[in-house]
Task: structure prediction
Amino acid sequence: MEIINQFLFVYGTLLQPGNEFAEYLNQHCKFISTGKIKGRLYDIGEYPGVLIDNAEERHVCGSVFKMDDPDAILKVIDDYEGIGGLYNHPQEYIREQVDILTDNGNVNCWMYIYNLPVDTYGQIPAGDYIQYLKDRSVQNNAFK
Result:
């Protein structure tokens, strides 16, 4: 029997209050720590995408969760992220195990990585999607 990694790193819509899949994670996972990985975060439209780059000086920020039933949870989140046999190739995201830097050292986690070209999308330089949404909301309200 294969032992599946119990840790999941999320950085985008899965951290948004009110997102039904974020709520699902909160019900079936335990928050472990904030974390980060070297790479670039992009605004893909209604959600972000990450490209990992160990040579990058910037980090993408997110949260590490411990899943109570990794097989079941990853099936649900794979479907949310458009991964699996039901979806056309190339798929928008791939799920890989990566090392996430936390305050307590590295944690090997599953992570969804953007799998398509990003040249038409804007980069989120600070690497924090939730803060980016808050800042954008404040800017939008300032112009009303």
